[in-house]
UniProtKB/TrEMBL annotation, chain A:
The name this protein goes by in its record: ABC transmembrane type-1 domain-containing protein
Entry annotated with the keyword Transmembrane helix: yes
Gene3D superfamilies for the chain: MetI-like
One Gene Ontology cellular component annotation held by this UniProt entry: plasma membrane
TM ranges: 12-33, 67-89, 101-123, 135-152, 164-184, 196-214, 235-257
Pfam families from the UniProt entry: BPD_transp_1
Subcellular localization: Cell inner membrane; Cell membrane
PANTHER family from the UniProt entry: INNER MEMBRANE ABC TRANSPORTER PERMEASE PROTEIN YDCV
Family: Belongs to the binding-protein-dependent transport system permease family.
Species per Swiss-Prot/TrEMBL record: Pseudaminobacter soli (ex Li et al. 2025)
GO BP, sorted A to Z: transmembrane transport
Membrane topology, from the record: Multi-pass membrane protein
Domain of life: Bacteria
UniProtKB/TrEMBL annotation, chain B:
Record's subcellular location: Cell membrane
Name of the featured protein: ABC transmembrane type-1 domain-containing protein
TM helices/strands, residue ranges: 12-34, 67-87, 108-134, 154-174, 195-220, 250-270
Domain of life, per lineage: Bacteria
Record organism: Pseudaminobacter soli
The keyword Oxidoreductase belongs to this UniProt entry's keyword annotation: no
Lineage of origin: Bacteria, Pseudomonadati, Pseudomonadota, Alphaproteobacteria, Hyphomicrobiales
Membrane topology classification: Multi-pass membrane protein
InterPro entries the UniProt entry points to: MetI-like, MetI-like_sf
Length: 270, 281
């Protein structure tokens, strides 16, 4: 049947690829064009917009802000999710459905609603939360919970944890040693995969950053939105950078997720 | 027994950071909104919901629901057709490359995407210029800054997401079934109506509900592209959070709770169909 039907397949795939690539290619060309609003092809090419936008100190500052916020969110997410997923999977099967539920709820929490709830709850409490990066990171950890939990739990379920634990115990390892030296290395794929997903989601996030801390800590997406309203050329360079960062992380995720795992022993878990 | 009970108590302590964090930043904020939305000056009331339904808010809900419905249907239908083309493509390289493309683009959104669409379909955008050379003038009838424009931009992430969700079901659709149907004298239409679509239905419905929620809650793309020109629920809530509108906390909370119900309903439906999909596979 592959020989008979190339007629409809080519335009469908061609249309899809065009729809997905033209906006990105147009953004790239626009960021390099001297002028491109009256001719079909850019009138000339220049690196001026890139040079101008990258030479600003705010550019490096916002890029670094986003990097740090994303990196800290990943670390906090790992610190709370990995031990919890491990314990629920191996020791507390009763807790597992609850963890599943808590890790799905964020999918149904629009950014604006989560921001509103956090402000309502914490604006009157004397805690160093509202208007600080702390609350932003806390919100990011929640938003990214589904990604981290799924990635870690799927890997845990694919590893024979009972066998590993029993083997380690018979060699005299304590619970913390087992977790740190046996379990974590065995679920490294899930940990890396989850971390990349969280990093990429946080790095590009705009809504919570905008509503929770506004201009006090400018992240890269906020900087980009400011530019879309003032200077389209430089905004296009920033937009292209966001695309490239997102692509690189997505491809890394695909690569880690599809990397062949060690042969697994089938079997149920306790 | 005693030792294992102590162990399990220790295990619960290990779970505590996760539970405390989730309670503090996920459960309590939602409960706060729920409580405040049904609290009036004289105790429990549903009055806040009534007051929330001003003409502007009704328009916001109607716009948001239409946008979510249109992009969820469009995304699922186009996505399934493209996914079928990918799944039945004879070249493995093409299959891998196109699936990777869907993977990469499904999470795009927000400001960069909105901006890319201004450059592509804005009044002096590349495709706008290209079409006007061909004698098709998009403007002034079409505007990228409108709800239609927003719908096109949303399809950019909705379609790839649908492709990823429907692909496993499509790969489970065995070519032999189609051949068997043909041998028994079924036409292509009959094959799809009786065999193909019923098998794909759970996956397509799961995709529809996830896409619906995805579009209903989206704010960054809408705000970058249209500012507050297009009246949507997330735009209204954000305006209330920023205090752009005279602050009436209970009103904002009622709106937020209503949109939580829409989102929760969609995700429950998604979970239901996703489970059925796994069972039939």
């Amino acid at each position: 049947m592959s020989a008979g039907l190339p007629t409809w397949r080519a335009p469908v795939i061609g249309g899809f690829v065009a729809f997905m690539t033209v906006p990105v290619v147009a953004t790239a060309l626009f960021s390099l064009a001297t002028r491109w609003d009256r001719t079909l092809w850019p009138e000339g090419f220049t690196l001026a917009w890139w040079a101008r936008v990258t030479s600003r100190s705010a550019f490096t500052d916002t890029l670094l802000n986003s990097f740090w916020v994303a990196a800290i969110s990943v670390l906090v997410s790992l610190a709370i999710v990995v031990p919890a997923a491990y314990l629920a999977h191996t020791r507390l099967p009763r807790a597992k459905p609850w963890l599943e539920l808590f890790s799905i709820v964020p999918f149904s929490l629009p950014g604006v609603v989560l921001a509103l709830g956090l402000i309502r709850l914490y604006s009157k409490l004397p805690l160093p939360l509202v208007n600080t990066p702390n609350i932003l990171i806390a919100a990011y950890v929640i938003v990214a919970l589904p990604f981290m939990y799924r990635a870690v739990m799927t890997t845990l379920e694919s590893v024979d944890t009972r066998l590993l634990i029993e083997a380690a115990q018979s060699l005299g390892a304590g619970p913390l040693q087992i977790f740190g030296w046996v379990i974590v290395p065995n679920i490294a794929v899930g940990i890396v995969n989850g971390s990349l997903l969280v990093f990429s989601a946080v790095f590009a996030e705009f809504v919570l950053a905008n509503l929770l801390i506004g201009t006090r800590l400018k992240t890269f997406p906020i900087y980009l939105v400011e530019f879309t309203r003032s200077d389209a050329r430089q905004a296009s360079a920033l937009a292209l950078m966001s695309f490239i960062i997102a692509w690189v992380i997505s491809l890394a995720i695909l690569w880690t997720a599809t990397k062949p795992r060690k042969p697994q022993k089938g079997g149920s878990h306790g | 027994m005693a030792a294992s009970a102590t162990h399990s108590r220790l295990a619960w302590i290990g779970l505590a950071p996760f539970l405390i964090f989730v309670a503090a930043f996920e459960i309590l904020p939602v409960l706060t909104l729920l409580r405040s939305s049904v609290t009036g000056e004289h105790g429990l009331t549903l009055g806040n919901f009534g007051r929330a339904m001003t003409p502007a808010m009704l328009t916001a809900f109607s716009n948001s629901l239409q946008l979510a419905l249109a992009t969820a249907i469009g995304g699922t239908v186009f996505g399934t057709i493209v996914a079928y083309a990918i799944a039945t493509s004879s070249s493995t390289t093409a299959r891998h490359a196109l699936t990777a493309l869907a993977n990469v683009t499904a999470n795009f959104g927000g400001a960069p995407l909105a901006f890319a669409f201004v450059i592509t379909l804005g009044s002096t955008g590349f495709v706008t210029l290209l079409l006007s050379y061909l004698g098709i003038h998009l403007y002034p009838d079409f505007r990228i800054y409108s709800i239609t424009g927003l719908g096109i931009a949303y399809l950019y992430f909705q379609m790839p997401l649908a492709i990823l969700l429907v692909m496993p079901a499509l790969l489970a659709l065995r070519p032999e079934w189609r051949e068997a149907a043909a041998i028994l004298g079924a036409t292509t239409v009959q094959y799809w109506m009786r065999v193909g679509l019923p098998i794909l239905a759970p996956a397509m419905l799961a995709s529809f509900f996830l896409l619906f929620a995805n579009a209903f809650g989206a704010y960054a793309t809408a705000w970058t592209l249209t500012g507050s020109n297009v009246n949507l629920v997330p735009v209204q809530i954000a305006a209330l959070v920023r205090g752009e509108v005279i602050l009436d906390p209970a009103l904002a909370d009622a709106l937020a709770v209503l949109s939580l119900f829409v989102m929760g309903g969609c995700l429950a439906a998604y979970q239901h169909f996703a489970r059925r999909m796994r069972r039939t596979k």
